[in-house]
Specification:
The chain starts with a strand and ends in a 14-residue tail after the last helix. With 130 residues, the protein is of the alpha/beta class. The protein contains four helices and six strands, in the order βββαβαβαβα. Belongs to the anti-sigma-factor antagonist family.
């Protein structure tokens, strides 16, 4: 768990995906901690990364850059499909809408909803030998 003066970040693995939960303000001072945690999640999980923003009260342009950077990392890793956002608060949702990112990120009401939306793993390839 990372705790700074105005942000708390936790992460856990659920259903093969990593859920990163953020509470407080994401700004120029706290964004580096979130960037590190999301990069770690993208590197270690084989499935989707879920970023729970339901307790975030403020984001600035640095925070948006961190979220977009994490999205790109998640999308380029083999086997990972999405970076899902959970329950953005009104201030966060407004910023996502104004920047057009509400159409980029998969938005969900709860972490359970986000995890339920993760597609199942594809079946293993069949052995072509007779």
């Amino acid at each position: 768990m990372t705790v700074l003066d105005s942000i708390t970040i936790t992460s856990e693995t659920r259903c093969g995906s990593t859920v990163v939960t953020v509470a407080g303000e994401i700004d120029v001072y706290t964004a580096p901690a979130l960037r590190d945690r999301l990069a770690e999640a993208a590197a270690r999980t084989e499935r989707d990364v879920v970023c729970d923003l339901s307790a975030v009260t403020y984001v600035d342009s640095t925070a948006i850059g961190v979220l977009v950077g994490a999205f790109k990392k998640v999308r380029t890793r083999p086997g990972q499909r999405e970076m899902r956002m959970v329950a953005p608060t009104d201030p966060v949702r407004t910023v996502l809408r104004l920047t057009g990112l509400d159409r980029v990120f998969a938005l969900h009401a709860t972490a359970d909803d986000a995890l339920a939306a993760v597609p199942p793993d594809p079946p293993p390839a069949k052995d072509p030998s007779p």
